[in-house]
Design a protein that fits this description.
Helix content of chain A: 25-40%
CATH superfamily of chain C: HUPs
CATH topology of chain A: FAD/NAD(P)-binding domain
Strand order of the largest sheet of chain C: 11-10-9-12-8-1-6-7-13
Low-confidence stretches of chain C: none
Oligomer: heterotrimer
Distance between the termini of chain C: 51 Å
Shape of chain A: globular
CATH class of chain C: Alpha Beta
Shape of chain C: globular
Structural class of chain C: alpha/beta
Largest sheet of chain A: 7 strands, mixed
CATH class of chain A: Alpha Beta
Distance between the termini of chain A: 41 Å
Number of domains of chain C: 1
Mean pLDDT of chain C: 89
CATH superfamily of chain A: FAD/NAD(P)-binding domain
Chains: A alpha/beta, B alpha/beta, C alpha/beta
Radius of gyration of chain A: 23 Å
């Protein structure tokens, strides 16, 4: 009887992340609009609000002393942001129309050329670029760097950014979201209050905009609490990437498919790699693999190390030096997994948290920015005299449906799912979809929950390279290269069952790019103990896709990305 | 020819080994080497300076200098440098020495480089930076050069010579004597804290179980050092967080760091890579710690350490 | 009582800390944050103010313009004002230059008590306070792990290699506190939000008495030498003896 992660669900329920406000009114923090997440979606919303405040100061008065606040669980905007990335500038152009030009934005230059390679262990075959992946007129960016810049722009327009602040619970009163409760700081491993214990606070707002990114904590709670979940479950991929200083400039954007992933249907290894130039002296390389994979020994971290040993890839990195590493999940369900509604009373959902990612094109940032902008405009409508907040927020759904977000995602809606049939069949079907712009095959293919894939064991780990510390690295060195120096003496933020079958413990140990999980002692009844090192966690979210639950640790914990 | 003055710090009737080590280093720089002893009732310490390489030892002996406070020492040194024309003043790192050197630098308008691990006759010092990941060459552009050497960098050398002993003037500024010693430190009965310890024995997962920390403790006691732990064993509850060395624990740079059953992941390495001498025992020949140990022993620590403890005890008695 | 806390804004992310090969100094173009060690001094100042029931805590720093963002954390913790000495002329300042500039700013503030943290998180130096005390011609106590104030004076328990001294000095005095003295508080959300509104001022080099030429130079950078004659042996039963021999050779036992 094969083990499935979903047979061992996490000891967590969405109800834990929802509560009524408890702080007395005079201790509550009141803001106008509250945005959770200082990523591209959240900061776009903050920037748009700032623009509207400039344009309509009398309306803005209704927002009070702190018109817009942005909560960020990382050390600073950008610390927890990670992507490839090749960005479609459309979202930024619309957000900054008339105010900023592209050359004023922190990009690493336009895409000059691109190639798509099909890899075998030793060879690289160039294949025509699929139309969905053409990156003409797009720009290479570091999302962490872009996020830092967007944060500065938001602050210049009057937003208050509150870093090192985890949003732990959604405050719901009378069926309406009225704000957020932030997390405590200064608790010890057993939850005890340490000398500098600082309790969280209730933050009250007219409208709360959730822009938490992948596996959004409050987003997950809201989808359950307000019955917003799509009938099709969300699915995710895990992306692991590195930034390198290189001796030879890379002159084009590269995507690869094939090796080291296996094409057979039983493996369900969907994904590929990207190698992007960041200026003349840096390159970023990453591997993205769908979390519906079945092999318990699969480790995306180590597959990336293996990928680097391919002669074609090794050449690019020769003479260089790894300067940063990171990992993050990407929602891949696309159109069919979008929430039934993107709003609830007092609440709006944006960006990756809502699932706005175009998987074949590997794009999500411009959708995040556009959705943040639209959310800001919908929130602003609640300020209009005589406005009904409910119908004002409903205009967000309407405007998203009329936007390029909806159009693009609908066109590619079935592509990810067909790869469940294996690489070649999936590829053929995907080709047909592209040619017909999504009209064939008709209908919407269902997604299958990642955690419901039963596990198999092959000897996959045998081919992972032994880290040499120059080209290839072990997980702990990678965690160090993420800038992670999380305080050890705090409560464990990961919810999993700690007594599970060995294969599941091994799945988690291999899956986690940060070596949080370890297979412990056997209990004698077919199960083993799972040991955790939570302070290694870079909050990628993979565990939530595979039977556990990531909750936000103490604010300020986690990676400190600057170039990812 | 350089005229070098070495600050000879003393405690309870003896000149500190660190200061004597710096005196030895001074002797290699090819100039005239003098030492200075400042305190009350310290005249007889001067002869030790001569025996360890000083051609001249200046003595500032006065009741007002009894307490080991920095500012009166700045006054004495400033006058001495001015009167005798020294161009180089060297210190061995200590809490007192750092305070004295910095005050003296301002008094004389002299450049001060600290945490040096070497100095050459051309006036270039070497100092590690960024958690010892880089070595920086530093220099001076002032007429008088002050330098503080990292603790334990140089060993004392008995030259068997004898020094000419001269008196140094004691003229103290008003503000220098405003801080007063209410109670001076007594000899500490407890073992040193890990940040101050000259010897640290650290235990990791290779110890196998919490009880085996006793091995680390015995070895530490035999060597006169403190016990530290890696994050993994602190996480597992084997040892308290106050003993954790590493990126999210303490950073230490003792003269000797003995790593027992520690793999040497970078999170641990950055907390101890500045140690002078690193000895590690691990049964995994591929453990990364061997890449930065001075002596790496591939073997079973449970067999080696008890024997080592006995040998150390025997040698010390 | 008016307490000035001297803090330094240093590159924040561990991953970002590097030496700029062009200037041979720490690359300060990345995000800056208050050096961890200095937060203990800020915390101590806040505690003294809270115990006394009133007073003022001013943070003083020298650095590039964007260091002011880092000073806001101290304001968020509860400090009342921030003053930043910023001037391109002070860019390469060493100990003498930094001490002179800080002393200049402190003289205009004339605080009763001046606090420092125990060392700089990036430069590793541990003596700025003595240099400042010398310029101000005031008493200094360093490595203080316990601090009490009485009317007109301050008493510190100072940790040295030999144990703890108890030293008293009249105010105004310069005190450097160690990280054993307290546990710094997390800024509250209200504190973070209120920080922006607290007074923040800047001083130029001219305001603090001009720039002092550096008296030290950085000549070159190199990777550290690999540990000379590193040895790796397999235990054949005599490892303990070999270790002892090695330790004896190095005069460690």
């Amino acid at each position: 009887m094969s083990v499935r992660p979903s047979d061992f669900p996490a000891p967590w329920s969405a109800a834990e992340a929802v509560r009524a406000p408890t702080d007395p009114v005079d201790e509550r923090i009141e803001v106008g609009f509250l945005i959770v997440g200082a990523g591209p979606a959240g900061l776009a919303a903050a920037i748009r609000i700032g623009q509207l405040i400039e344009e309509q100061p009398d309306v803005a008065e209704r927002l009070g002393d702190v018109p817009v606040a942005v909560l960020e669980k990382g050390k600073a905007p950008g610390s927890h942001l990670l992507s490839g990335a090749v960005v479609n500038p459309r979202g930024l152009q619309r957000l900054f129309k008339g105010r900023k030009r592209i050359d004023e934005m922190p990009f690493y230059g336009p895409v000059h050329g691109e190639s798509v390679l099909f890899l075998t262990k030793r060879r690289a075959l160039r294949i025509p670029t699929p139309p969905t992946m053409v990156n003409h007129r797009n720009y290479v960016a570091s999302l962490a760097r872009l996020g830092r810049w967007l944060g500065e722009e938001a602050e210049a327009l009057g937003a208050t950014i509150l870093p090192e602040t985890a949003a732990e619970q959604l405050l719901v009163d009378g069926g309406r979201v009225v704000g957020v409760r932030t997390g405590d700081r200064g608790r010890g491993r057993a939850g005890e209050e340490l000398g500098n214990f600082e309790p969280g606070s209730d933050i009250a707002a007219r409208v709360t905009i959730l822009a938490e990114g992948t596996q959004g904590h409050l987003t997950g709670a809201a989808l359950d609490r307000f019955y917003l979940r799509s009938d099709n479950p969300q699915v995710w991929a895990l992306g692991v990437k590195e930034v390198w200083k290189v001796a030879t400039p890379l002159r084009e954007v590269v995507h690869t498919m094939g090796w080291p992933l296996r094409p057979g249907k039983r493996y369900r290894e969907f994904g590929g790699s990207f190698i992007y130039p960041m200026g003349d002296d840096m390159v970023t390389i990453g591997l993205v693999v769908g979390l519906d994979y079945r092999d318990a020994e699969l480790s995306v971290h180590d597959l990336l190390q293996e990928l680097k040993t391919h002669p074609r890839v090794r050449r690019i990195l020769e003479g260089g030096e790894r300067v940063q590493w990171g990992a993050k999940t990407i929602p891949e369900g696309g159109f069919v997994a979008l929430p039934k509604k993107l709003h609830a009373p007092g609440l709006l959902l944006c960006g990756d948290g809502a699932g706005f990612v175009n998987v074949p094109a590997l794009k999500g940032i411009h959708y995040a920015i556009e959705s943040g902008r639209l959310a800001a405009e919908a929130a602003w409508r609640t300020l209009e005299r005589g406005a009904s907040p409910r119908s004002a927020l409903a205009t967000y759904d309407e405007s998203v449906r009329e936007s390029f977000i909806w159009r693009d995602l609908q066109e590619v809606r079935n592509m990810r799912q067909v790869f469940g049939r294996g690489f070649y069949v999936g590829g053929a079907l995907a080709g047909a979809m592209t040619a017909t712009k999504g009209r064939f095959p008709p209908g919407n293919a269902a997604t299958e929950r990642d955690a419901e894939q039963s596990l198999i064991a092959t000897d996959r780990a045998a081919s992972y390279p032994t880290p040499d510390g120059v080209l290839t690295f072990d997980k702990l060195s990678s965690v160090f290269a993420s800038g992670n120096r999380t305080r050890d003496d705090q409560p464990n933020h990961i919810r999993i069952q700690t007594k599970v079958p060995r294969e599941l413990a091994e799945l988690w140990a291999r899956m986690c790019p940060a070596q949080v999980y370890e297979v412990g002692e056997a209990d004698g009844d077919g199960t083993v103990e799972v040991k955790l090192a939570p302070s290694n966690c870079v909050q990628c979210g993979a565990i939530t896709a595979k039977g556990g639950r990531l909750t936000p640790p103490e604010g300020g914990s986690g990676p400190e990305y600057t170039l990812t | 020819m350089a005229r070098i003055l070495v600050f000879l710090e003393h405690h309870e009737g003896a000149i500190q080994k660190g200061s004597l080590g710096v005196l030895a280093k001074a002797g290699q720089l090819g100039g005239e080497v003098s030492g200075v002893v400042i305190g009350s009732g310290v005249r007889e310490l001067a002869e030790a300076g001569g025996r360890h390489g000083a051609a001249t030892v200046y003595v500032a002996d006065d009741a007002s200098l009894a307490a080991p406070l920095p500012q009166p020492r700045v006054d004495v040194l400033a006058k001495l440098v001015g009167d005798e024309g020294f161009d180089t003043v060297l210190f061995a790192q200590s809490v007192l020495a750092a305070d004295v050197a910095a005050g003296l630098a301002v008094r004389l308008g002299a450049g001060l480089n600290w945490d040096l691990v070497d100095l050459d006759a051309d006036g270039i010092g070497k100092r590690p930076a960024l958690a010892d990941s880089v070595l920086v060459d530093v220099g001076w552009s002032s007429d008088v050069r002050l330098a503080i050497f990292r603790a334990g960098t140089f060993d004392a050398v008995e030259t068997g010579g004898s020094a000419e002993i001269k008196d140094a003037a004691v003229e103290l500024q008003g503000f220098s004597t405003q801080a007063e010693m209410v109670e001076q430190a007594h000899a500490d009965q407890q073992g040193p804290s890990i940040e101050d310890a000259e010897v640290i024995v650290a235990g990791g997962r290779g110890l196998g179980e919490p009880e085996k920390f006793a091995l680390a403790e015995e070895l530490a006691q035999a060597l006169g050092g403190a016990v530290a732990a890696t994050r993994a064993v602190v996480d597992a509850g084997w040892y308290p967080y106050s003993a954790q060395v590493g990126q999210t624990g303490k950073t230490v740079s003792p003269k000797l760091y003995v790593a027992l059953g520690i793999s040497g992941a970078i999170q641990h390495k950055v907390g101890m890579q500045g140690s002078n001498v690193i000895v590690s025992i691990n049964k995994d020949s591929n453990a990364p710690i061997f890449e930065f140990s001075d002596l790496g022993v591939v073997g079973d620590l449970h067999e080696i350490v008890p024997k080592l403890v006995e040998l150390v005890r025997a040698r010390r008695s | 009582m008016k307490i000035a806390v001297c803090v330094k804004a240093v590159p924040d992310a561990t991953a970002g800390r590097r030496i700029d090969p062009a200037t041979k100094r720490i690359d300060r173009s990345v995000e800056l944050a208050i050096s961890d060690f200095d937060t203990y001094a800020v915390e101590e100042a806040l505690r003294l103010k809270e115990e006394a029931g009133d007073g003022e805590v001013v943070v003083v720093s020298m650095g590039p313009e964007k260091a002011m963002d880092a000073l806001r954390k101290a304001l968020a913790m509860g400090a009342d004002r921030a003053t930043l000495i910023t001037d391109s002329a002070l860019g390469g300042a060493d100990l003498l230059g930094t001490a002179a500039a800080l002393a200049g700013a402190l003289e205009s503030e004339s605080p009763d008590l001046i606090l420092f943290g125990q060392q700089s998180a990036d430069g590793g130096g541990a003596c700025l306070w003595s240099a400042v005390a010398e310029r101000l011609r005031r008493p200094v106590i360093s490595q203080v792990s316990e601090l009490t104030t009485e009317s007109g004076s301050v008493t510190g328990k100072r940790q040295t290699e030999f144990g703890y001294d108890t030293i008293r000095a009249p105010l105004p005095a310069v005190i450097a506190v160690s990280d054993a003295i307290n546990t710094p508080r997390y800024p509250s959300l209200k504190g973070i939000m209120g920080a922006k509104k607290k007074p923040q001022s800047t001083f130029s080099a001219a305001d603090v008495g001009g720039a002092v030429e550096p008296a030290t130079t950085v000549v070159a950078l190199a990777p550290p030498p690999a540990r000379g004659d590193a040895r790796k042996i397999e235990d054949d039963g005599s490892a303990a003896e070999k270790i002892l021999e090695f330790l004896a050779e190095k005069r460690l036992v």
